[in-house]
Design a protein that fits this description.
The complex is a heterodimer of chains A (about 475) and B (about 100). Chain A has about 475 residues and is of the alpha/beta class. Chain A is about 40% helix and about 15% strand. Chain A is built from 17 helices and 17 strands. In chain A, α6 links the parallel β4 and β5. In chain A, α3 packs across α4 and α5 packs parallel to α6. The termini of chain A are far apart. A 5-stranded mixed sheet of chain B has the order 1-2-4-6-7. A two-stranded parallel sheet of chain B has the order 3-5. Chain B is about 40% helix and about 30% strand. Chain B is built from 3 helices and 7 strands. With about 100 residues, chain B is an alpha/beta fold. The chains are: A alpha/beta (about 475), B alpha/beta (about 100).
Chain lengths: ~475, ~100
Amino acid sequence: MNEKPAIPVNVDAIMRKASLAAAVFSQLSQEHTDRIVKAVYQAGFNHRVRLAKLAVEETGIGNWKDKVIKNVVATQLVYESIHGLKTVGIISEDDERGIVEIAQPLGPVLAVTPVTNPTSTVLFKILIALKTRNPIIVRPHSSAIRCSSEAARVCYEAALSEDAPEDCIQWLENTSRAETQALMQHKKLALILATGGGSLVNAAYSSGTPALGVGAGNVPVFIEQSADIPFAVDQILISKLFDNGTICASEQAIVVEQPIAEKTVSEFKRRGAYFLSDEEAGKIERIVYDSGKGVMSVAVIGKTAAEIAIMAGMDVPPGTRLLIASLRGVGKDYPISSEILAPILAFYIAEDFKHAVNLCIDLNFHGGIGHTASLFSNDEAKIKEFALVMNAGRVVVNMPASQGAVGGMYNTLHPSFTLGCGTGGKNITTDNITARHLLNIQRISRRRVNQRFERFNQELYFDESLDATAIEKEYNRNL
Amino acid sequence: MVSYVAEEGKLFCKFEPRLDTVHCLGFESEVLGRIKEFGGDVIFDLEKVNYVASAFLRICLRVCKETGTGRFSMVHVSPEVKKVFKIAGFDQELAIQ
């Protein structure tokens, strides 16, 4: 954790600059805006390796190659998904309905960014903010200040090279809680994009400024009987080992039905998974879970399986890539059934499909409401049945959950590093946040009279004896 | 870039259409110098202006500070440019017509 003292910031000065930038930005054409966005994407992309290495060096979390991929998603894939969007002026015209939509920027956006995906989240938020002509103020996690600030600086230089408004990107270094709070509550701030832990997201929502936040994940992955088991296990490893399990949408627990359990275990073992004994699971529990705070221990985030085993004082076979604990329950008595952003999975054997889905519901509701659920299956009816009962913004099927939820790599979800969890997660949306969420849409409405309403004898509404059915009959007469 | 007319005790400054950063850097010292020398009320005529950069907004703030409250205003401002001043929060400090 960064122990540097907070550098005092003048919140009013920051917001003054942001307001000026917003004012100037509001004049830019689509063409000019898009030139700025392209320059920023290219600069971020071109610095992807350096920024990735900086992130790992500073945070000690994950591995640099996977962080490069995160930076690629945050730049190249995000750019591909947004560059063709109309975000300036008239963006749609529906003559039949008489509606014209006009895109307006929101104003200054405060981007709170995490320690797990520091540079990628910065790059992503800057791109979507600039695409929508919103100046952005980046407030990095205290343990990722250098790499996050550097990502912002790279973007800012690129933006200025295309004559972007001064101060369209600002970044803060080590602000105190009070200053962050003051920023969040500032009257000139239009929106908070909050990607981080629960207390921070709560602070954003409590500030009085509109906010788009995220929720915690506790992703169950159900390998249903019709699944291609070797394929499923491969995909789970692709996801869970990606950047040492630091994406919030990574699998946290595997649920399999009894008839395929043995084969599933065998496939995991063949690929470097180590199934913990009860005693070993107990050792692991003590270091991966902070029972005082009721959350995962920060010390294990993004560590490898081997490193975690050492921390727990146990031996694992060489080449162990993943630790798996067979559990009999879900909840606070089973700490490994909680979200742990590291290569550790809980494992459940269910009697049948119904039992398996019930277990997934328990896991989903144990700290992961609204986030993501994962299923491997080739049975359409079961896929739908599963999805209908999950409370998850993303139900990813037959793909790695981390990459699947982020979007753009294994599906057509909008690539994003801010995944809404809906009201269950105390967010306002279940969407993958993207550029279109950063626009105020105005509508010109032209006269298109509702013919039935106009010709209907409205005196009939005052006749209490006429119920809805009677009114409808008259209302729709002669259609 | 900027034309000046002193009339009825006021200094009218008329600007060209595009007030981007480069142009503003070019005329900033001249405008501020003339205003200081004039010492009276100042009016910025923005009739032809269709774009203002942050640099111009900062010049306006400096002029406001130099002349004092109520002695600096803008006229013939287009709706688009007026909106810019509103977003920047300047309408509280400047008289914009």
